[in-house]
């Protein structure tokens, strides 16, 4: 990846082009600039020089034909943006590489939301965009361009016009373009270039000849200069060609090529098959020692472009590479397959899988390519580069593509693309192939493929939310007695066991596919059966076991079975960290923090979240950047529960929780938190608008939990605005849904918002004041909620009374010591200020800790602040 992100620079003499640099600098006031021309006009060189002078950060991405895969493309774009700010785009990246059929529009929205947080202006440069032909990539690029934040500028370099609709941008003055007319060398630039390259300035006659014949085409000047050191060559050489650059490129390169020593000519032809190269790779391909040859080429300034600071990787200028490849096909056609095979073996040995497989295909080594794809199927599936994998599978001859091992990968690929019908068709085809080939296949392979089929059928049902089929398949799986024994004979693990992530990156695992989009009534039945399967087959320590434990912890928490919720959340912790199932670990953290709040232990809840932060940091910066936003959203909720306006405002001002952003389904938890914040600030109309939007999204995507939560928000907003009738109507819809899907704690945890509305609702129900409220949610369910809320209120009153009694037992001196703690004074400083011995201060502190039921300064200050003592 590093070579694609490296800003190219010329190893030869550069001619300063201030007029173009100034034009690009002016373009920063626009959204987008486009530099387009045929090859050899210095696009990349110009942009590299510009980046070197930019007073701001820039991310660079050199594109190639392999990037015609929307997932791969955006993974690389985010990597380029992370050169601007470390960790930026981590959430978008996570959804690209873990979601089933990622919604690119939502991914782009998520990315833009993160880009807004970059403090300074920055530039993204996409070089060689002409290699991109995929319509999905073009469409997603337009989505980005339309939503570019004010601090970002995109620059695209291409050999041809970009396939975007740019009329509106041009009309608004948001587009800056450089074309051939701008990029041509002027007379003065030609003179300066020739003087630097040859060591003498051209006379006026020769200058006019150069300008007339090359038309300012930089590559033509460079090629002419290669023969310019021979005084007898230039005039005749230049006079012999004319016309546009596309007609003279072969002539110029041919003339230059024939001037090279034969050893160099052969080296150039053999290595022209490589998109990038280093000494070791060239040795493998040519069979000789290449270091000295590469150094010669670099010193000769021969269209060789370094791809890293260490000058380890290089590539030929694309125009030069195309010429060499054409000459190779005419001069040494029989060697091409062998050269690609040698390159493939080097890339395979060094674990560059994509390059290895692509060279194998060109070499016609389909069997070897198929084996490498099969061996690394889980790697490609985890990365979600479905288009790339699909392209490879399509290139395989039918006898290889229809092998059972390839069909398994195809099935998983279709499943992860969200294509249920093609997945089912693939299963049928695989079953037919197994029947036909059963006698020729090893037992371990047949067993594994049979397991793959059952797993894929199960997940296909889950992903299309076919609850009955999913449960029947899981029940049949659990009833089997041969799974544990069969696992001893598998030729390798099934792909699900290898850790393919099927979560959607939200805070709650049961609000995604694992919970059938929040249908907890069925999810409980399903996950309890899944747990029985795990226990029966001794699969406690697998990646998917953590998902099951976490789902059960959320389900039991929601049904107010708190001890069971705690047990399964702790089980999740153990397995999730061991298996690096970090999203599930984060979800379990939220459950444990909620359990603390349910028991009125707010300081402990804060401690749980801070422990989660520490764990993410230990796991790595990438995971921290990906998941931290959920923890910050939870802290915001905690501060609102504590009515800690100061800390909430600090959090909001820190940009760790951004309220000014577009809505995306991938940030459901943060979006719900945003509505809570708006309610807390009594910005009811803004909260209403956002909540209504989320209701629309939830109904379209059939996400039950989000719909329920937003109906409760609507009830609270309408009640606050004096719309009592509408409020009880919204609450009634929520109660119907809640009873149907077994939600309980969602209502209970919103006691502060709902209790008064619920009292009004009960009065309407009991007095039959609104007939339509009589059907739907049962009175028994509503009364259970009312009773639980009343018990909560009573329990809270007892706690507050106990805290009040604790305060009354604090002596005047202990309160003075507590005040000094709040000012950050040490024991010694407190002793000096209050004229006490340091040992006496320690004694007072121990008494304060005991009366406030805490263990240290931090907890004492948190509790004192909560009790309004400081």
The class by helix and strand makeup works out as mainly alpha
Using only CA atoms, what is the Rg? Answer: 33 Å
The major pleated sheet works out as: 5 strands, parallel
Number of strands: 7
Determine the N-to-C terminus distance.
53 Å
- What share of residues is helical? 55-70%
Residue-averaged pLDDT, rounded?
85
Kindly estimate the percentage of residues that lie in beta strands according to DSSP. Answer: under 5%
Oligomeric state as shown: single chain
Overall spatial form: globular
* Lateral arrangement of strands in the main beta sheet: 2-3-4-1-5
Number of helices: 47
Q: Give start-end ranges of low-pLDDT stretches.
A: 242-247
Keyword list:
two-stranded antiparallel ribbon, single chain, mainly alpha, 47 helices, 5-stranded parallel beta sheet, 7 strands
Structure write-up:
This protein is mainly α and 870 residues long. The two termini are 53 Å apart. Helix 34 (602-619) runs antiparallel to helix 35 (621-641). The radius of gyration is 33 Å and the shape is globular. Strand 3 (122-127), helix 7 (135-146) and strand 4 (152-158) form a beta-alpha-beta unit.
List the helices and strands and how they pair.
Blueprint: H1 2-5, H2 18-27, E1 32-36, H3 43-53, E2 57-62, H4 70-81, H5 90-98, H6 104-115, E3 122-127, H7 135-146, E4 152-158, H8 167-171, E5 175-178, H9 180-183, H10 187-198, H11 204-214, H12 218-226, H13 234-239, H14 245-258, H15 262-271, H16 279-286, H17 291-299, E6 304-306, E7 314-316, H18 318-331, H19 336-349, H20 353-363, H21 366-375, H22 377-383, H23 386-395, H24 398-401, H25 404-416, H26 420-437, H27 443-463, H28 467-479, H29 483-486, H30 520-536, H31 543-558, H32 562-578, H33 582-598, H34 602-619, H35 621-641, H36 645-653, H37 668-680, H38 684-701, H39 704-720, H40 724-740, H41 745-748, H42 751-766, H43 779-809, H44 812-822, H45 827-834, H46 838-851, H47 857-866
Parallel strand pairs: 1-4, 1-5, 2-3, 3-4
Antiparallel strand pairs: 6-7
Helix pairs in contact: 2-3, 4-5, 5-6, 5-35, 12-14, 16-19, 19-20, 20-21, 23-25, 25-26, 25-27, 26-27, 27-28, 28-30, 30-31, 31-32, 31-33, 32-33, 33-34, 33-35, 34-35, 35-36, 35-37, 37-38, 37-39, 38-39, 39-40, 40-42, 42-43, 44-46, 45-46
């Amino acid at each position: 990846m590093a070579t694609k992100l490296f800003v190219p620079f010329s190893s030869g003499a550069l001619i300063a082009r201030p007029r173009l640099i100034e034009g690009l600098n002016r373009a920063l006031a626009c959204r987008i600039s486009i530099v387009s021309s045929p090859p050899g006009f210095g696009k990349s060189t110009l942009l590299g020089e510009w980046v070197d002078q930019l007073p701001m950060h820039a991310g660079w991405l050199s594109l190639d034909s392999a990037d015609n895969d929307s997932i791969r493309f955006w993974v690389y774009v985010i990597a380029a943006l992370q050169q601007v700010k470390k960790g930026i785009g981590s959430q978008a990246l996570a959804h690209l590489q873990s979601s089933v059929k990622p919604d690119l529009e939502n991914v782009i929205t998520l990315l833009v939301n993160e880009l807004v947080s970059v403090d300074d202006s920055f530039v993204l440069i996409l070089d060689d965009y002409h290699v991109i032909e995929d319509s999905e990539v073009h469409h997603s690029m337009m989505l980005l361009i339309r939503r570019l934040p004010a601090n970002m500028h995109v620059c695209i370099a291409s050999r041809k016009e970009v396939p975007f609709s740019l009329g509106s941008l041009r009309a608004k003055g948001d587009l800056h373009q450089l074309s051939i007319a701008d990029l041509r060398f002027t007379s003065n630039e030609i003179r300066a270039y020739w003087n630097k390259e040859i060591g003498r300035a051209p006379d006026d006659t020769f200058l006019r000849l150069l300008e007339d014949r090359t038309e300012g085409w930089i590559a033509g000047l460079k090629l002419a200069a290669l023969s310019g050191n021979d005084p007898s060559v230039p005039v005749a050489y230049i006079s012999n060609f004319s016309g546009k650059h596309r007609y003279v490129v072969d002539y110029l390169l041919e003339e230059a090529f024939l001037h090279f020593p034969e050893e160099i000519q052969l080296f150039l032809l053999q290595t022209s098959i490589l998109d990038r190269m280093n000494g070791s790779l060239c040795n493998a391909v040519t069979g000789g020692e290449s270091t000295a040859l590469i150094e010669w080429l670099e010193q000769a300034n021969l269209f060789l472009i370094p791809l890293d600071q260490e000058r380890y990787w290089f590539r030929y200028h694309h125009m030069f590479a195309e010429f060499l490849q054409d000459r190779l096909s005419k001069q040494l056609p029989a060697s091409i397959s062998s050269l690609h095979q040698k390159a493939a073996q080097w890339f395979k040995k060094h674990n560059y899988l994509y390059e290895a497989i692509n060279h194998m295909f060109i070499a016609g080594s389909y069997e070897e390519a198929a084996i490498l794809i099969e061996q690394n199927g889980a790697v490609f599936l985890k990365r979600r580069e479905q288009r790339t994998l699909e392209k490879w599978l399509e290139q395989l001859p039918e006898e290889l593509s229809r092998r059972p091992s390839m069909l398994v990968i195809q099935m998983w690929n279709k499943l992860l693309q969200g294509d249920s019908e093609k997945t089912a068709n693939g299963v049928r085809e695989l079953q037919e192939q197994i029947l036909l080939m059963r006698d020729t296949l090893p037992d371990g392979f047949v067993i594994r493929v049979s397991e793959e089929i059952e797993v894929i059928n199960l997940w296909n049902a889950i992903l299309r939310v076919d609850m009955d089929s999913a449960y029947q398949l899981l029940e049949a799986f659990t009833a089997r007695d041969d799974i544990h024994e069969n696992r001893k004979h598998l030729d390798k693990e099934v792909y699900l066991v290898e850790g393919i992530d099927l979560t959607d990156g939200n805070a709650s695992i049961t609000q995604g596919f694992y919970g059938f989009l929040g249908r907890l009534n069925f999810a409980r039945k399903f996950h309890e059966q899944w747990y029985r399967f795990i226990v029966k087959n001794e699969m406690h320590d697998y990646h998917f076991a953590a998902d099951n434990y976490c789902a059960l912890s959320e389900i039991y928490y929601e049904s107010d079975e708190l001890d069971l919720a705690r047990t399964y959340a702790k089980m999740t912790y153990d397995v999730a960290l061991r298996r690096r199932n970090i999203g599930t670990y984060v979800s379990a953290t939220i459950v444990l923090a909620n359990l603390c709040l349910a028991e009125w232990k707010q300081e402990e809840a804060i401690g749980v979240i801070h422990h989660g932060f520490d764990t993410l940091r230990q796991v790595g910066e990438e995971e921290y950047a990906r998941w931290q936003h959920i923890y910050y959203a939870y802290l915001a909720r905690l501060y609102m529960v504590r009515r800690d306006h100061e800390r909430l405002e600090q959090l909001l001002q820190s940009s760790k929780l951004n309220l000014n952003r577009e809505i995306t389904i991938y940030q459901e938890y943060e979006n719900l938190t945003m509505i809570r914040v708006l309610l807390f600030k009594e910005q009811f109309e803004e909260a209403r608008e956002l909540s209504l939007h989320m209701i629309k999204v939830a109904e379209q995507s059939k996400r039950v939990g989000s719909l329920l939560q937003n109906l409760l928000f609507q009830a609270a907003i309408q009640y606050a605005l004096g719309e009592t009738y509408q409020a009880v109507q919204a609450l009634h819809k929520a109660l119907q849904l809640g009873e149907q899907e077994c939600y309980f704690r969602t209502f209970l945890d919103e006691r502060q918002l709902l209790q008064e509305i619920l009292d009004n609702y009960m009065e309407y129900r009991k007095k039959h004041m609104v007939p339509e409220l009589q059907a739907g949610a049962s009175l028994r369910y509503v009364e259970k909620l009312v009773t639980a809320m009343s018990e909560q209120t009573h329990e809270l009153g007892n706690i507050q009374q106990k805290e009040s009694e604790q305060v009354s037992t604090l002596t005047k001196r202990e309160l003075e010591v507590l005040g000094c703690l709040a000012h950050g004074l040490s024991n010694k400083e407190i002793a000096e200020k209050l004229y006490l011995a340091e040992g006496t201060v320690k004694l007072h502190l121990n008494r304060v800790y005991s009366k406030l039921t805490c263990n240290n300064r931090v907890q004492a200050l948190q509790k004192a602040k909560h009790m309004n003592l400081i």
